[in-house]
Every structure is written in structure tokens, then in C-alpha cells.
Amino acid sequence: MKVVQFTVPVGRDHSIHVQEDNLPYFYEHLHRHNETQITFVKKGVGTLIAGNKMQTFGPGDVFILGANLPHLFKCDPAYFEKDNSLNIHSLNIYFDCSGFLSSLLQFPEMSMIKKFIESSTQGIQALGESATILSDYITQIIQNTQGYRLATFIEMLQTMSKIKDWKYLSNQHIENPISDYEGLRMNDIYQYTMKNYNEDISLEEIAAVIHLTPQSFCRYFRKHTRKTYTNFLNEIRINEACKKFMFNDFTSISAIAYQTGFNNVSTFNRVFKSIIGKSPSEYIHQYRTKVSLSE
User: What pTM did the predictor assign?
Assistant: First the structure.
């Protein structure tokens, strides 16, 4: 499960690289690359980890992931079950601002675009109507060729620079990118936690995954994520609870609490509100209202 810094194959005759993925599941390991990535998820459900933050992803989502931002699109466990019929479909655009586009960004007409790209380094998500508009642009870029593709790409960046309601994904600055070795260790922590989040994971157990003592592990994890492991584990559990609420995959709130690893409902309600900003019942009501209005 080695995590490496890999290079997106942007050819010499192209300023940007486009890629359409129709696969059983997304690449399942924490990784990074020099190129900024724009992804439109057409099909697929799971958890996105970007820097030190995580959230659900699903059809219609549009994300911009800055250069060297460690990230992982982790599909739900059902995608890895034998003989399942699930698959993912995404449209992706990669571009290196220090490469071919660096000269273009120096033009005064590109000042807003340059500022926008610099502001997106920690990862951002388009919301609502903005996501719909950008998904149309991404589809056009994938379909276009040569100068038409580049022209549409620049037009999309100009549109992006005018959007005000971006959702910022991470508050972790990537001044010193994580090394390959540390990436390997962090990936092991993430993978183990996402696989066993509904169990009672002790510090001794998770520390053993990367061969550290519990005390050393706590220092190590906080250094690389700026949060405690307990906070990280709770974020994963609440993220999974939100997905169950969204897909109406539950019989009661208390059942979800126990299914996601909490020992009692009161703790689940308290942690849920501290992370999401509203109670589980408020979240369910708000989501159902949003869905009914869109139908």
C-alpha cells in the first residue's frame, strides 16, 4: 500500500490532461501529485479525505484539489464486495500551474484566475447551482479537442474565480509536503480506521498499526493532522452516519449510533452536533426537505 508522489501524464502537446474513469472503485490509497485536480463525480459514493478533513462524496459533486494536497476518494465497502454490480464514473482535469500555464497566468487578464487557483490549494467543493454549471464545463472540456479544449478550460476558470460560495475542505497548509514514508504510515492509519470505525478502537490498537507506542502515536498523529485521533475517528463515524441518513438506510437514530461505533445515543447526539452543527433529527429533516424541493 505504498503511497507515492506520482506524476499525471500531461503530454508535451497538451497544457492540461483530461481523464475519464469508469472503474469498479476509485484509487483507494492516500496520494498526491504536483498537478491541481478538478473532479466531477458522475457516479459513486464514499468518503473523501483531503488534507486533514473528510466528508462524503456522491453523484454531482465537483471538487478542486490543490497541488500536493494528500487526498483519497474512498468508496463505501459495498464496492469491494465480491460479485457486486457497483462502479464509479468520474471526469477529471489535471493542470500544473508551474508548467505550461505559468506564463499564461502572468497576463493581467488572468489575475482573478491566478488568485482563485492560489486560494484553492487546500481543496474546495462547488455547491448547488455552481456545481451544475461547472459539471457542464468539465463535460465540454472532456469532449473538446485542441484549442477548443483550452479555451473552454480558461472560460471555466474565469467562471470559478467569480463563484463566492465555495466550501473549503481542509485547513492544513501544505508548506512541507508529506514524505512518501509518512504517506505510507498515514495511509495505513486511514485505511485501518475506515475499515474498523464501528469497533472500539483503542490507542494501543491503532498505534500498533504503525509500530508506535500510544504516547508516540498521539504526538505523531496530531503533528500530521492537527487534531487528535479521537476527533478523527469521530469524524469518520459521523460521516458514515450522515451517509446512512442521506440514503434512508436506518430504522432509528439510536440504531445508527450503535452501528457507527458509539456506546450510547447521548454521546452520538453530542458529537454529531459538534461536527455537523445540528442535531441528527435536524440534519435528517433538512436533508429530506432539500430532496423534496428538488423533485
Answer: 0.79
